[in-house]
Amino acid sequence: MKITILSSSLNKKSRSLVLSQYAKKMISAQISDCTLLDLKMFDIPFCGEQGAYDHKNVIAIKNELAESDAIIVSGPVYNYGVNAVTKNILDLTGEAWAEKPIGFICMAGGQASYMSIMGFANSLMLNFRSLIVPRFVYALPNSIDSENSTIKDDSIKKRIDELCENIIRLAQALKK
Fold first, then answer.
1. pTM higher than 0.90, yes or no?
2. Which domains does the chain have, with CATH numbers?
3. FRET partner for 38 with CA separation of 20 to 30 A, picked from 20, 27, 70, 130?
């Protein structure tokens, strides 16, 4: 079984990357094939640019996602939604997301955006028949020490643990 964690923040001191790294550690303790794709490490064209779908990095990411049994999307919440990097990679890789469990780890600036991921989740459900794991992780800045790359809030660790357990269980069930 293979699970891919897609970290979409472009910030060098990304808090959502800290959460992604913790999720990778938890998943890797249970299955052997877990990949963390940090999108800030890739040059990715905008969807709609000439040749965007044939770009080597787009092809590599699409293949990684297509080979995965489940995907966790980790990133910041901007303007009550996923960041543009996340939306762009979905637009470029489309069918690679089809009929897979998808989990979410969200890093937000305030408490008011808890439901902000729903537009993106609905798109995955309706367009690609993805199975959305109903255990979103929603963290606030005071939960993370990004200077030391640590999670300060144990309740966030617990929620990531639960998300990881659920996505593994769902991916295993769908493989049967």
1. yes
2. 2-175 (3.40.50.360)
3. 130
